[in-house]
Amino acid sequence: MASNGSGGAATVSRDVVGDLSHDDLRRLYETMVLARQLDERMWLLNRSGRAPFVISVQGHEAAQVGMGFALDPSKDWLFPYYRDLALVLHFGHTPRDAMLSLLSRAAEPNSGGRQMPGHYGSREHHFYTVSSPVGSQIAQAPGFALAAKMRGEDTVVVTSIGEGGTSQGDFHEGLNWASIHKLGVIFFVQNNHYAISVPMDMEMAVKTVAERAAAYGMPGVRVDGADAVEVYLAAREAVARARRGDGPTLFEAVMNRMTPHSSDDDDRFYRSREEVQSYKQRDPLVITRQRLLDLGALDDAHEAEILARVKAAVNDATDYAEQAPLPDPSEAFKHVYAEEGRTV
Amino acid sequence: MATKLLIEAIREGLHQEMAHDERVMVLGEDVGQRGGVFRVTDGLLAEFGHMRVIDAPLAESSIIGVAIGAAANGMLPVAEIQFLDFIHPAMNQIMNEAAKTRYRSGGDFECPIVIRAPYGGGIHGALYHSQSLEALFTHIPGLKVVAPVDPYDAKGLLSTAIHDPDPVLFLEHKRAYRAVRADVPDERYTVPLGKARIVREGSDMTIISYGWYLQEVVQAVDRYTQEQQATIEVIDLRSLRPLDTTTILESVMKTGKVIIVHEANKFGGLGGEIAATIAEEAFGYLDGPIVRVASPEVPAMPYSPPLEKAYLITADDIRLAIDRLAAY
Amino acid sequence: MSSTKQGTTITMPKLGESVTEGTLGAWLKQVGDTVEKYEPLVEVVTDKVTAEIPAPISGTIVAIVGDEGATIPVGGTICVIDEGGEAATTDPSAPTQTAVDTEPAVATLTERIPPDQLAPSVSAMSSGDLTHARANRDEREMLRIRSSPIVRRLAEEHEIDLSTIGGAGLGGRVTKADILAEIERRRQQPAAYAAPPVAPLPPLVQPPVAPPVPFAAPQFAAPQVELWPGDEVVDASIMRRQIAEHMVRSVQTAPHVTVWMEVDMTNVVAVRNRHKEEFARREGFGLTYFPFLVRVVTNALREHPNVNAVWDNGRIIRRKAVNIGVAVALEEGLIVPVIANADEKNVVGIARAVHDLAERARTNRLSADEVHGGTFTLNNPGTLGSLFSTPIIVQPQSAILSMEAIVKRVVVVDDAIAIRPMMNLSLSIDHRLLDGLAATRFLATVKRGLETYPTDASIY
Questions:
Q1: Residues of chain A contacting B54 with CB distance shorter than 8 Å
Q2: Fewer CB in 10 Å around end: N or C, chain A?
Q3: Residues of A in contact with B66 (CB under 8 A)
Q4: Helix (H) or strand (E) run with residue C441 in it
């Protein structure tokens, strides 16, 4: 359920679906299912010793795809973070790309095998290269939007971060820049209540991230991140605001992280199995599916079709990536600097 | 062509580059309305407007972060860090982000930013307005670092740095801003990165230096060659990474004796890297140990005049090192 | 995984670096169930987590080996799956060992060194050993301590015993200036020193940048060239700089004079034509005129020992060996590999050596030894059309011969007009040691050797 952040957040109604047709809604749902099943396959490969590292999107699918559908991937840009699998799938990352990256193959498009999985990057598909230090992208996204503004373009830049990352200095600095210069940036905080093991009440004194928006003179919005339609409707307003030059939004989507932080984390140290089980009630796939059923946009036949297509895509991607060659060792030494003598 | 101060040459370079290419933009604290605390960016706001000359909030990390983001979207940002001593909050953006953009994206993204920063001491700046930190940055592959002190070099290297597709740290010695002058062409021109300049030719000893202390070296060397039968070759590195090892090695192979002089602290300073390279690649030509003359192992330059003086290196200190090595 | 007549055996995978076995948890499939590739088969319990083993292939479970609670070693059988009607061959779509498993095991440094080799070097270093070693340092060691790398090298090159010269450096050290002065002194009075047997110079371990020969050459300051807008500044390659340096040094050291003679190549052409097809068939490359010239030149050098010699400040060193340098043109410059003892080879031997050296020169596979020790150099600009040239001597030699293009010309033979294949030879000499007379005599010998080359000669 959406709530108002202080500073004039949007009120969302359950009966309006913005600019999305039923077909669009089904595509939205399919992207969520694809993200989930790719993610589950990655864990399977990790648990059977075939992939060293997984960092998961499970629990975040609705928020990401809901946000994605409010954007125009042909002109807008993402400065994502490592958990944004569903969002980058919407922007053109393919299932094969995801598996190539998981298995660090030569053809993996993010980095040629130089980075761990989850470090997305594609100029062609409009998402900036991800690094590991948390929050650095928040100070960079306003720069991208600033350049667009200088050229009179209405590019919207969405930059993602967890609620933990909002503690970083770069979060404050990025929001500050965007609000001073009224830049078209949506600061997309995916609040899953845990920064690895540190719960939200040890991460900040305020109860919501959205209320911090007032300190920057920008609107703060808080939505139920498990319902993709809710997220989409709220994001649509933030995108419209950015596009007409009215500046940034601090956009908080609330959800659960259904897996440990990554395959290197053991969440039994800091949360109970009952708590993790309870997340199933708020599984975004279940909630969004119900929403689509209520809207008459989904039926059993559609769903069967979607599941079959997704399953085939995931299997194809896995097989493809497992056969694909690893990078040549000489690649370790390339792309440190531009070619000798090149200028821009 | 006219005689210009270092600061005038840099200012002129910035004006001309911004006029020549509308992708060039400047951002930093006080760079706009005030024209920069040293007046390097004086006049840019009036000429190019507030979209291209931006007074940034007091936050170094995002000055670089925003520059990186703008560069990703087609601009050629020239970010200013008001004093190199204040660059530390931006280390993550410089070392983890800018330096690694090309490598981590397999060449899909690049980061053609310039970071300008006044550095160095001897102007009663004390601990936090005098630091020389170039060794921290030359250590990171993916970054380029230049430190021209001659006005001709500075204007030419600035033009090259702005059009270099990789991030360049452009260090300006603040003591030299209004104390060093040279003939500088009025039009745009470039000086290549990675090339040192031979300031004095000689065959009995080589001295390698850069920054303000190059003046002290030249002073010591000119006095020495007047008094002695020997001649000393002086190299101004200008470019710290990439380093012109060819010029360095050719000189050492000719003279057999070498001193490296820099203002940064000796331990872990660039002199160590140069000395190791010489020892590895020209060992058979050495006629004496490789000597480094550098600042003492003290956290930074102190304030009170006798304390600052104790920290500074003069032409006399350099002469002492020359005499000892010559006698070896 | 392996095949039996029932089906494909599924084994316990390696779930972690140090894992050697796994304990089976609950079976998620039973005998008779069909399973799809990637569907979980059974839980495996480790101390960290309960994992699920996915089916590597699709099929029907025909056998389960191991109940819940059984501990199976890595690689041990856990069940058998029948893929249904297909021959029991390896499934091409079955996942091969992925990146994680196919990583070559990179041993740590200590693992690579066998333990018995590690220990002794450490245990042998007792303090007793060190003092003993110090006391045993001999005179040679003391000198080594006193002298720097450049001084030691110059001493070796010029066969100077450091203990015989005084040092003006710190603590009596022999400095570079001291040894250079000594070298100069010995040059002025050669008779005072027993001329040591001239051994070939040991090849230096080359640093990446070319070493200039350490001698008191006049320093020339290269003029600073003014840059104009639009100029392209290209950094010369190391090879280019080396060549530039060598050429300057050569012309500054040796006063060059070039003499030309023309040669009627009729006989050589005839011999080559007679042999060329069989040669190409046997050797796999073409027979040129060059090896014939080399053959004739090596004979001529034996008749004119001063041409196979070098000037050394008042001494003429006549080389016993005849090592022919062959100039090879490369895109980025040139290089002169050497055919050692060319006078021992016949035409085929020379042809093979030239072909091999040129090939390896172009693919950058020559060793440092192979470009040293030449006593005379041959150049072949004629293949590119040159008619006359003024080649520069490769130091330290005293002459260089260029073979120019062979062109059919109208000439007068026995007072009648004839058409003959004519070729010029361009010989540059070091005028310190050779005069015009010596040059023309040598050329005349070569000319005669070529013009009277027996047409029935064998090339073997």
A1: 146
A2: N
A3: 139-140, 142-143, 146, 177
A4: helix C436-451
**Residue A123 annotated in active site:** no
CA C420 vs CA B317, C237, C407: distances in Å:
77, 43, 8
- Residue B13 contacts residue B172 (beta carbons within 8 Å): no
Identify the chains in contact with B, defined as 3+ C-beta pairs within 8 A: A, C
The pairs formed by B183-187 with CB atoms below 8 angstroms and a separation of 24 or more are B183/B1, B183/B2, B183/B3, B183/B4, B183/B152, B184/B1, B184/B2, B184/B3, B184/B4, B184/B8, B184/B9, B184/B12, B184/B151, B184/B152, B184/B155, B185/B1, B185/B152, B186/B1, B186/B2, B186/B12, B187/B16, B187/C229
Residues of A in contact with C17 (CB under 8 A): none
Beta bridge partners of C23: C45, C71
Distances (CA, A) of A255 to A1, A58, A63, A85, A225: 11, 10, 8, 15, 5
Q: Is C252 on the interface with A (CB under 8 A)?
A: no
Mean of pLDDT values over C152-175:
84
CA-CA-CA-CA torsion sign (B105, B106, B107, B108): negative
pLDDT in tens, chain B (328 residues): 999 999 999 999 999 999 999 999 999 999 999 999 999 999 999 999 999 999 999 999 999 999 999 999 999 999 999 999 999 999 999 999 999 999 999 999 999 999 999 999 999 999 999 999 999 999 999 999 999 999 999 999 999 999 999 999 999 999 999 999 999 999 999 999 999 999 999 999 999 999 999 999 999 999 999 999 899 999 999 999 999 999 999 999 999 999 999 999 999 999 999 999 999 999 989 999 999 999 999 999 999 999 999 999 999 999 999 999 999 8
> Which of B189, B281, B286 is the closest to C149 by Cβ?
B286
Catalytic choice (A119, A222, A261, A289): A261
- pLDDT surpassing 90 at residue A1: no
Q: Are A249 and A241 in contact (CB under 8 A)?
A: yes
Residues 175-194 of B with CB under 8 A from C: 187, 189, 192
Supply the pTM of this predicted model: 0.69
Backbone angle region of B163, left / alpha / beta, with phi > 0 → left and psi within -120 to 50 → alpha: alpha
Quickly tell me which residue has 């008001």 as its tokens: B82
What is the spatial distance between Cα C290 and Cα C212, in angstroms, rounded to a whole number? Answer: 32
Q: Which of C18, C9, C85 is CA-nearest to residue C41?
A: C9
Element (H, E) at C310: strand C309-312
Q: Which residues of B touch C221 (CB under 8 A)?
A: 201
User: Which residue of chain B has the CA closest to A132?
Assistant: B96
Reported ipTM: 0.92
Determine whether B163 is an active site residue.
no
C169 to chain B, minimum CA–CA distance in Å?
5
Label residue C335 exposed, middle or buried (CB < 10 Å: 0-12, 13-18, 19+): buried
CA C451/CA C420 separation, integer angstroms: 11
Nearest by CB to B68, which of A115, A143, A177?
A143
A253 token code pair: 């989507």
CA B135/CA B157 separation, integer angstroms? 19
Q: Mean pLDDT check: name the lowest of A14-28, B268-282, C268-282, C371-385.
A: A14-28
Selecting from B54, B65, B76 the residue whose C-beta is nearest the C-beta of A173 gives: B65
Of B57, B109, B110, the CB nearest to A176: B57
Say what angle helices A22-47 and A61-69 make with each other, to 10 degrees: 140
Catalytic residue list of C: 431, 435
**CA of A147 vs chain C CAs: smallest distance (Å):** 31
Instruction: Summarize pLDDT for C52-94 with one digit per residue, the tens.
Output: 888 988 999 999 988 888 988 888 899 999 987 544 444 444 4
- The shares of helix, strand and coil residues in chain B, as percent rounded to the nearest 5, are 40, 20, 40
